[in-house]
Amino acid sequence: MITLAYGTNGLTDHRLDDALGLLAEHGYGGVALTLDHMHLDPLAPGLAARTALVRGMLKRHGLQVVVETGARYVLDPRRKHEPTLLSDDGAERRLDLLRIAVDVAADLGSRVVHLWSGILPAGTSPATGRARLLAGLEELLPVAEAAGVVLAFEPEPGMLVERVDDVLDLRRALGDPDALRLTVDVGHLTCVEDAPGPDVVRRVGDLIAHVQVDDMVRGVHEHLELGTGAVDLPGVLAALHESGFDGLAAVELPRHSHAAARLVASSAEAIRAAAHAADVPLRERAPLQTQEVTR
Question: Pfam families annotated for this entry (predicted)?
Fold first, then answer.
């Protein structure tokens, strides 16, 4: 069953406990937690103790969690998203961050860590970038497997891996490991995929481990409020349900933190309306209670 969730990269003006409380208040059943300085800094001292505190917050608010690793400046204050596994220098720092994310996920009781490839460095051939990416994944996969964590790889417009088929190609090159699966951003499906979003989901549904929800228009990589773009949200939710998806569908509005209090409420209602139109049940948290309810 699909779990209604929201990403903390769209809640960066809120303290984490306040953000989680807001989600619980509006019936969300999960949160996509980006490791970053404002909520759970993966590089600051005392990570184990701080992770334990976050686990307590999640339990108190009745929220499931997926760990995301797309923070903009967590590794370099001057270069957004750098270094990556594709970088000429510093790829080992990204790999270390991903290892930390796996450990944090295990400590939080999460089954999933989200990641992406990054942008191909200037002057680097696609073949070299792909070789670097495969080498990094070959090191990371045993870590994830030992921790019982799935790596959910997100195709991202403009990055080396930008389409669903690019992830499938990586999986084939690595022997189709069970621990390497897909993050599907429903906006990206509209932005860059050739087939309609619901058709893409049906084709790869058994590999989807995490879902990000936003609106978008064809050819423009801009995350929009739900209902303001061209995404067929009822169709995508129906396809996810038909595929047996049993994870978080997390609202992904990383440039909208200033309006988070409004958008947490309106996004939940938009997803509920789309699910109702598609006759799809959602896993939610009963507001201000501890039990889980479905609809």
Answer: AP_endonuc_2
pLDDT of residue 294: 41
Residue percentage of the chain with pLDDT more than 70: 97
> Which tokens belong to 120?
């191909």
Residue 102 near residue 144 (C-beta atoms within 8 A): yes
Estimate to the nearest angstrom the gap between the alpha carbon of 33 and the chain centroid.
8
Reply yes or no on whether the pLDDT at 288 is more than 80: no
Q: Can you give the C-alpha Rg of the chain in angstroms?
A: 18
Question: Domain range for residue 132?
Answer: 2-294
Q: Residue 286: its pLDDT value, please?
A: 66
Given a contact cutoff of 8 angstroms between Cβ atoms, the answer to whether 261 and 18 are in contact is no
Residue where the block lists tokens 């001057």: 78
- Least confident range from 26-35, 146-155, 177-186, 217-226: namely 217-226
Structure tokens at 118: 């990054």
- Assign residue 70 the CATH number of its domain: 3.20.20.150
CA distance 279 to 234: 9
- Give the chain's domain count: 1
Question: Any residues with CB less than 8 A from the CB of 72 and at least 6 apart, and which?
Answer: 36, 80, 81
